[in-house]
Write a structure and sequence with these properties.
This protein is α/β, with parallel strands linked by helices. It has helices at about 70-80, 95-105, 130-135, 145-150, 155-170, 185-190, 190-205, 220-235, 260-270, 300-315, 325-335, 355-360, 365-370; strands at about 10, 25-30, 40, 50-55, 85-90, 110-120, 140-145, 175, 210-215, 250-255, 285-290, 345-350. The chain has a six-stranded mixed β-sheet with strand order 3-4-12-9-10-11, sandwiched between helices. It has a four-stranded parallel β-sheet with strand order 7-6-5-8, with helices on both faces. Belongs to the ACC deaminase/D-cysteine desulfhydrase family.
C-alpha cells in the first residue's frame, strides 16, 4: 500500500475495475489509519463449522474511529476544494458520523454545525459518549425534535436550511448528508475492496462472505458495488457472485427497511457515482436483513447482554446501535439460515461506534457486567 501523509489533500484515481462508476472524486484527504487489521474472531453462538474474521474499522483512529473516516476522506477533500469554511451535517443524538465529522473538520481548520435529533430538543443533551467529543472540538449543536425531523422528511431539509442561514451570514458551508452516504462518500467503501482482497490473499483467509451493519446506506453501497465490480474483473476475487439470489455481501440494517435501502442506493447513490441506468441494481450485490430490533438506537436486554458476552469472550467492544445489533442477528442467521451464505468463512466488518456504549451504561444489567466486591484485608 502506498504511503500517505495524514491530513494532506492528494489527487485520487479510481481503480480500473470501478470504471462503470464514471464520476469518481478528484481528491482525497487521508484521515484514517488504513489498512485496518483483520483478526480471527469467535463470538458467542457462532456455529462450530463456521470460521469468522473481524475487520477492525474501529481502528481507523481514536477520535474519528469507525467507518465514517473512509467516507470523510472524500467528502472533506471536496469541501476544502470548494473553499468551505464550515461543514453542516445531521444525525441522531449519539451520532458517530456527526462526531467523526466534527473532529475531522476541526483537524482541517473547519467549523462544524451538527443537527441532532432528540426527544426533547429544549433540553441540554449532556456530555455522554459522542456528545462530549462533539462539544470538546467546538461543534455548534442544533437540536430538532424527532417529530419535526420526520415531518420534513429527514435530515436534508435541515442541512439545507442551515446552509442557507450560514451563507446569508457570509460563511461558506459544505453540507454532508446523514451518515456521509452519497455518491462522494460511498467511494470510501469502494476503496476498501482492494484492501480486504489483498489481506485475504496475503493472510490466506479464504473469505466467502462479508457482513456489516447498515444505518444510512453508503457503506453497503460501497462494499456491495465494489465487490461486485471487482469480481467481474478478477476471477480470483474472494467474494464470488455466482448465485443471483444469494450475493455474498450481507448488510444488517438498523433502521428503515430493506426496500428503503435498496431503493435509496439505486436512486440516490449509484446514479450520482456515474452508473448508467440499467447496468445493475443493489439487489444484484446485497442481501439486506433487518437487525433493527425494537427501534433505531434502542436496545433490548438480550442485545446488550450479547454485547457484554462478546466483550467477555473475545475482548472486542461492539457499539449498541450498529455492529452490536448486526453481529447479534448475523450469528442467529448463521445458526438458523446457513443457506443464505456463499460459504463458511465470514468477514465481519466492525464499523466503530464504541463511544455509544457510554449512553447505554444505565441499561446494562449487573449480571452482564459484574458487581464490584469490597477488598478484604487478611
Amino acid at each position: 500500500m502506498a504511503h500517505k501523509t495524514f491530513l494532506q489533500r492528494e489527487p485520487y484515481t479510481a481503480p480500473q475495475w470501478a470504471a462503470a462508476l464514471s464520476h469518481p472524486p478528484k481528491e482525497r484527504i487521508t484521515l484514517g489509519n488504513f489498512p485496518t487489521p483483520i483478526f480471527p474472531f469467535r463470538p458467542p453462538g457462532l456455529p462450530a463449522d463456521v470460521k469468522m474474521f473481524i475487520k477492525r474499522d474501529d481502528y481507523s483512529g481514536v477520535e474519528i474511529s469507525g467507518n465514517k473516516a473512509r467516507k470523510l476522506e472524500f467528502l472533506l477533500a471536496e469541501a476544502v476544494a470548494q473553499g468551505a469554511d464550515c461543514v453542516v451535517t445531521c444525525g441522531g443524538i449519539q451520532s458517530n458520523h456527526c462526531r467523526a465529522t466534527a473532529v475531522s473538520a476541526r483537524m482541517l481548520g473547519l467549523d462544524s454545525v451538527l443537527i441532532l435529533r432528540a426527544d426533547d430538543p429544549a433540553e441540554d443533551p449532556g456530555l455522554v459518549g459522542n456528545l462530549l467529543i462533539d462539544r470538546l472540538v467546538g461543534a455548534e449543536l442544533l437540536m430538532v425534535s424527532r417529530s419535526d425531523y420526520a415531518k420534513h422528511g429527514g435530515g436534508d431539509y435541515f442541512i439545507e436550511k442551515t446552509c442557507e442561514r450560514l451563507r446569508a451570514q457570509g460563511r461558506k458551508p459544505y453540507g454532508i448528508p446523514v451518515g456521509g452516504s452519497n455518491g462522494v462518500g460511498t467511494w470510501g467503501y469502494i476503496e476498501i475492496i482492494e484492501e480486504l482482497e489483498h489481506q485475504n490473499q496475503h493472510m490466506q483467509l479464504g473469505i466467502t462472505d462479508v457482513a456489516f451493519a447498515c444505518g444510512s446506506g453508503g457503506s453497503a453501497a460501497g462494499i456491495g458495488a465494489g465487490a461486485y465490480l471487482y469480481a467481474q474483473h478478477n476471477a480470483a476475487s474472494a467474494l464470488q457472485f455466482t448465485s443471483p439470489d444469494r450475493p455474498p455481501v450481507h448488510s444488517y440494517i438498523v433502521c428503515d427497511s430493506p426496500t428503503y435501502f435498496y431503493d435509496y442506493i439505486d436512486t440516490k447513490i449509484l446514479p450520482t457515482m456515474g452508473l448508467a441506468a440499467g447496468t445493475f441494481s443493489s439487489r444484484n450485490f446485497l442481501q439486506m436483513t433487518n437487525a433493527m430490533g425494537v427501534g433505531y438506537a434502542k436496545s433490548t436486554a438480550d442485545e446488550l447482554e450479547y454485547i457484554a458476552s462478546v466483550a467477555r469472550q473475545t475482548g472486542v467492544l461492539l457499539d449498541p446501535v450498529y455492529s452490536g445489533k448486526a453481529l447479534y442477528v448475523l450469528v442467529k442467521d448463521l445458526q438458523a439460515h446457513p443457506e443464505k451464505f456463499a460459504g463458511k468463512t465470514i468477514l465481519f466488518v466492525h464499523t466503530g461506534g464504541m463511544f455509544g456504549l457510554y449512553d447505554k451504561a444505565p441499561e446494562l444489567h449487573p449480571a452482564a457486567i459484574g458487581t464490584p466486591k469490597l477488598f478484604e484485608r487478611e
